């Protein structure tokens, strides 16, 4: 425990009890209805999903005022542990780390009471504990035997699946946990790690060179009321000796000082290291065992951080005191925030992501595949260096052997450069190649690939269902005045099919399009019904590949974007596609030739199947 040199610890704006954190909100009923029962249920059902891209790390700082001689009160900490156990499944809590100063004086009585309280979480959620200055008499990690070491030494953790080992003195330890389908290293260092302790820590890092690491200790940094963290003397030593030279360490957490704070430093590899102070002992009831949850979301490349007190949260709202109300959750900039981290990019220096190899065509042609085109050397007769033009007349072969080859044709008076070959591709795409279309307006320009007049695909009806899949990428920046543009279509017009619905009799009988606002639209005129069921997506991102799948089971049509079903799918019955024997087109529609531009961006592998595929059968990698 230590107050910073700033004489007036600042308080942040506090969220009143009427609003609770999302994860904690569920605990109001769980813990309020009976904390012990909730904890028992959590232990029984608190499964942790190691494969999910979302998981949480719980951080617990200085609890010393709850274990202070004859004024001790372990109930707040017990409530926090009950929360972690009961919410482990819902919040996908991987691990809990205590930042030291478990007790106020480090006496055997205080230590024993704290150790007994830890039984609430023991065997249910893995955790680490490290010694703060209040837990031990004095000195560095070579101090020898203490009541703390007997209670919180290596023997306590030896049965945990995450425990990796401890330094010979017993005061430093490490854990390896599996979360988000990878392993992570947590270092728990004594509040004064000796040279021997730091050498041991370096050896742990050297033994696990590809694991992203979180360093935890007691004395790391201090902050003023502005929330800007600064390395303490001990923190500077850790930075110089361990953190800055080990690119694996991307997050370092400390307690000891208040108020909380955070900063970002640059390590020797030129990468960010996030340093955070977490300590609430100066708040009501010694912080009431308040926890901070670091919610990792590798799908969003984000860590969302929130700070709250489960003990107060479990109270009947009508009976909470004003101080309990204001301490339920902290919402200041140093207590509730998000960190944007491109994890793959941040970790590539020590754990580069090995891209999947191209998959041969036969591995991605499930039963019912009627056409499959890809633009690598296997599928296109005009590949070359990136940026090379793909000339009119070039052929993209239908790799199913069904005879639905595509031929390049330029729109309007477009120059040959309007269509070029690219090695860019979606990371899950079977072929590592694509076509770059430079369609646009003023002047109208573009290129398309079409089947020949007698291709079997032209007259297929798909009455039993269909799946249409493709990969696209819109440029960043998305420059210019871009009109409604087609990704793929059949050239038949709904008016020629005798359809009476739709906004124009000249609309294609089936088309997948991008609006000027970057929304996807899929519309098709069924072979059986007089209808025009239409799916609409959200606005697509730019500069990023997107997988699109449209699935019809013979009755309804559903669009998926990156494997997720979109919201606006039609309920209209839709059986088959009215193709009218007209050519299939990639890169536009007949509207592009008559009224405007061709596609602007990249198009990759495209596949048509004459049945409804499940999302697990899409071309996206699932293992």
* Residues in β-strands, percent: 25-35%
The tally of beta strands, per DSSP, is 35
Distance between the termini: 47 Å
Q: State the helicity in percent bands.
A: 10-25%
* Rg result: 30 Å
**General shape:** elongated
Structural class: alpha+beta
Mean pLDDT: 90
Instruction: Enumerate how many helices there are, as a single number.
Output: 13
Instruction: Give start-end ranges of low-pLDDT stretches.
Output: 3-45
Largest sheet: 8 strands, mixed
Offer a quick outline of the entry.
This protein has 13 helices and 35 strands.
Notes on the structure:
By secondary structure, the protein is an alpha+beta fold. The protein has 13 helices and 35 strands. A hairpin with a 4-residue loop joins strand 31 and strand 32. The longest helix is centred in the first third of the chain and has 19 residues, at 27-45. The radius of gyration is 30 Å and the shape is elongated.
């Amino acid at each position: 425990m230590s107050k910073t040199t700033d004489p007036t610890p600042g308080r942040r704006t506090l969220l009143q009890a009427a609003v609770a954190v999302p994860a904690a909100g569920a605990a109001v009923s769980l813990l309020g209805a009976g904390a012990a029962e909730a904890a028992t249920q959590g232990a029984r059902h608190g499964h942790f999903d190691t494969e999910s891209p979302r998981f949480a790390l719980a951080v617990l700082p200085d609890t010393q005022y709850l274990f202070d001689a004859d004024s001790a009160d372990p109930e707040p900490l017990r409530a926090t542990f009950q929360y972690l156990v009961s919410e482990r499944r819902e919040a996908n809590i991987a691990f809990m780390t205590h930042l030291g100063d478990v007790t106020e004086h480090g006496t055997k009585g205080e230590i024993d009471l704290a150790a007994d309280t830890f039984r609430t979480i023991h065997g249910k959620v893995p955790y680490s504990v490290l010694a703060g200055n209040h837990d031990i008499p004095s000195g560095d990690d070579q101090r020898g035997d203490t009541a703390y070491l007997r209670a919180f030494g290596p023997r306590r953790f030896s049965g945990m699946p995450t425990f990796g080992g401890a330094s010979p003195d017993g005061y430093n330890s490490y854990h390896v946990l599996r979360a988000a389908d990878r392993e992570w290293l947590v270092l728990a260092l004594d509040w004064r790690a000796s040279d021997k302790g730091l050498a041991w820590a370096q050896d742990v890092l050297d033994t696990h060179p590809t694991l992203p690491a979180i360093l935890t200790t007691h004395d790391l940094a201090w902050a003023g009321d502005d929330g800007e963290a600064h390395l303490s003397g001990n923190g500077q030593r850790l930075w110089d000796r361990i953190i800055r030279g080990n690119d694996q360490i991307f997050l370092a957490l400390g307690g000891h000082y208040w108020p909380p704070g955070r900063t970002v430093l640059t390590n020797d590899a030129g990468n960010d290291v996030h340093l955070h102070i977490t300590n609430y002992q100066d708040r009501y009831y010694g912080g009431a065992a308040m926890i901070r949850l670091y919610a990792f979301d590798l799908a969003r490349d984000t860590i969302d951080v929130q700070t709250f007190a489960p003990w107060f949260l479990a109270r009947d709202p009508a009976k909470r005191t004003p101080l309990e109300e204001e301490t339920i959750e902290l919402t200041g900039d140093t207590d509730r925030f998000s960190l944007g981290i491109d994890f793959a990019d941040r970790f590539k220096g020590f754990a580069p992501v090995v891209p999947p190899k191209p998959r041969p065509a036969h591995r991605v042609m499930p039963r019912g595949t009627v056409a499959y085109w890809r633009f690598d050397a296997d599928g296109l007769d005009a590949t070359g260096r990136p940026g090379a033009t793909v000339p009119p007349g070039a052929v993209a072969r239908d790799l199913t052997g069904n005879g639905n080859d595509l031929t390049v044709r330029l729109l309007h008076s477009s120059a040959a450069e309007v269509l070029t070959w690219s090695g860019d591709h979606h990371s899950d795409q079977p072929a590592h190649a694509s076509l770059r279309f430079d369609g646009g307006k003023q002047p109208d320009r573009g290129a398309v690939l079409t089947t020949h007049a007698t291709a079997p695909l032209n007259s297929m009806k798909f009455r039993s269902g269909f799946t249409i899949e493709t990969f696209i990428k819109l440029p960043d920046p998305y420059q210019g005045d871009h009109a409604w543009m087609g990704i793929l279509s059949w050239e038949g017009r709904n008016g020629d099919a005798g359809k009476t619905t739709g906004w124009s009799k000249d609309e294609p009988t089936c088309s997948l399009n991008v609006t000027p606002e970057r929304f996807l639209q899929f519309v098709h005129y069924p072979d059986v019904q007089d209808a025009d069921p239409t799916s609409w997506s959200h606005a697509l991102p730019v500069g990023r590949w997107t997988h699109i799948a449209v699935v019809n089971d013979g009755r309804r049509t559903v669009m998926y974007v990156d494997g997720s079903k979109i919201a606006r799918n039609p309920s209209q019955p839709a059986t088959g596609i009215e193709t009218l024997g007209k050519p299939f087109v990639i890169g536009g529609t007949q509207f592009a030739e008559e009224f405007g531009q061709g596609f602007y961006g990249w198009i990759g592998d495209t596949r048509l199947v004459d049945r409804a595929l499940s999302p697990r059968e899409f071309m996206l990698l699932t293992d």
